Amino acid sequence: MFEGRTLGYGLARSLFVFPFLALALLLIVLSGAHRSLSLDLLLSSYAVPSEGEPLRFCRSRRGSFPLHILLSGLLLFDQIPHPRLAIPPLSSFTRRDDIFVAYSVHHSAVTNSSCSAGSSTAEPPKDELLGGLMSVAFDGASCLSRHQSAWYRRKPSNHTPSPYLIRRLRRYEALHKKCGPNTKLYRKAVEQLVSGTSTAAAECNYVVWVPSDGLGNRIISIASAFLYALLNDKVLLLHRTDDMGDLFCEPFPETSWVLPSDFPVRYSWVLEKDHGYGNLLKNKLLSSDMDTANASLPAFLYLHLVHSNDEFDKMFYCEEGQQLLRKFSWLLLRSNQYFAPAFFLVPEFETELSLLFPEKTAVFHHLGTYLFHPSNTVWGYITRYYEAYLANAKSRLGIQIRLFRRAHFDSHSDYIIDCALTKRLLPNVNLTDTALPTITGAKPRSVLVTSLRSGYFEKLRSMYYEHATTTGEVISVHQPSHEEEQHSEKLNHNMKAFAEIYLLSLSDALITSPFSTFGYVAQGLGGLRPWLLVRPDDHDLCLHSTSMEPCFHFPPSYDCKARKKVDIGSVAPYLRHCEDFPHGVRLFD
Hints:
Layout: H1 2-31, H2 39-44, E1 46-47, E2 56-57, H3 67-75, E3 114-115, E4 122-123, H4 144-148, H5 163-179, H6 184-195, E5 206-210, H7 215-232, E6 235-238, H8 269-274, H9 277-282, E7 301-305, H10 319-325, E8 330-335, H11 350-356, H12 363-371, H13 376-390, E9 395-400, H14 409-422, E10 445-450, H15 455-466, E11 475-478, H16 491-505, E12 509-512, H17 517-526, E13 531-532, E14 543-544, E15 558-559, E16 564-565, E17 575-577, E18 585-587
Parallel strand pairs: 5-6, 5-8, 7-8, 9-10, 9-12, 10-11, 12-13
Antiparallel strand pairs: 1-2, 3-4, 13-14, 15-16, 17-18
Helix pairs in contact: 1-3, 7-12, 7-17, 12-17, 13-16, 16-17
GO molecular function, one term: galactoside 2-alpha-L-fucosyltransferase activity
Protein name: Fucosyltransferase
Membrane topology: Single-pass type II membrane protein
């Protein structure tokens, strides 16, 4: 009789447990978890332990998984016997156990763990907030890459953002939310602009970025413009053209950085003539010592910071110029340069920049990581390609090839391959014994080639297909696309370009072409010091850069203090000439 009652009691509890679990799974789907985790992965995230092992709940690297829903149900059935699963009571787990990923409603507490298939040990927790760069105010579904990107990087960044930078970013986000598009203060500022009174004291001040040239140029100039806005308590807005429509997620919570389409000013050459800062200085219609309170000033200024600007435009980089520009509520800025290094030469910014960036070679790394998250569409390109070709590789080498003038293909491709071989980034091949054995079951080493043309990829792939390596390793070579020509005016072209930049940034080592902003962005996002395809001497085929910062190709040559032309690469110990373009300067530590 006792056995019958026990059996009936267990059966009754089982009949109650399973409907609850089914309800929990339904709640998970309704909560949005299905957007980042398939049902088979969700179910496989519960791993039945071997005898004597603790119960582990695993986390998919693709996104957060609300296992607390399931666990809250299991807590109700603590100590329930199960005929097949040896589940220990949940009360036996301590807070240090890797049980589940806990996200509060406001994402205020995050505890991550990951179990690899077939492994009894958990992977180290991933820092999804990237050292505090990311705000906790975002939801996961609107931008999958924001929280998932950390799971695609094998190693955490060695470059920790300063606590001061994190505080300033949170302060900027509050300012952008208060003054951003469709707010009362934004509409008031636009009314002042239209009426011609925008030089009056205003609560909100703006920098409007205007695009120029290709995607790499746009990204490095946006990062520079954001730093300028951050240093001057201005709000950055992007004039986003159709060819940039679905590239990036919004970087600031609960607001937008996209300039509304009804903004009353549009870029044209007329702006440079009538509102250009350099042109007004040249014609003595504007000066740093003028009485702006009683002067007749334009409602806004246009900053021409492209590579072809003149010395008057470059007065932007002088301290007295900054003081004058601060009196204008609206600035339109057009650039194709990484002009952030120039701010380190402005005395009034010196203390602030040293607090923001104690590690000067990580300026773009932190700004780029914070600002440029692939949209869900682009993230789909990235993750599908990564999982198909790169995820199981033992190591990943990225090779970025960009030509700015004609080169003999065979000699140039041989040069690139020789760089990889002599620097031991790839193994040599045996040209005499084609039957050398390979290491059975070993993971391959993957090479990702990005180029407008397919010839470099095909030559490298054929080399490792037709010949065995001297180490016995297997080399897989991949190229996502070859567009033949650059078409920065097309959205689809730019989406593929950003996907390839991001895939390059996931490499363990990187070879890049000189002068290429495409490569600069990849190395900066990845926190990588690249091997530059530059011959430093007769012995070395390529050069390992001592900085991961982009090069400011055309910096000012005027010393604002000394009032004379100088070698800008020698005025500060942290500014040196670029190895790949000696005319330019780059930040070093």
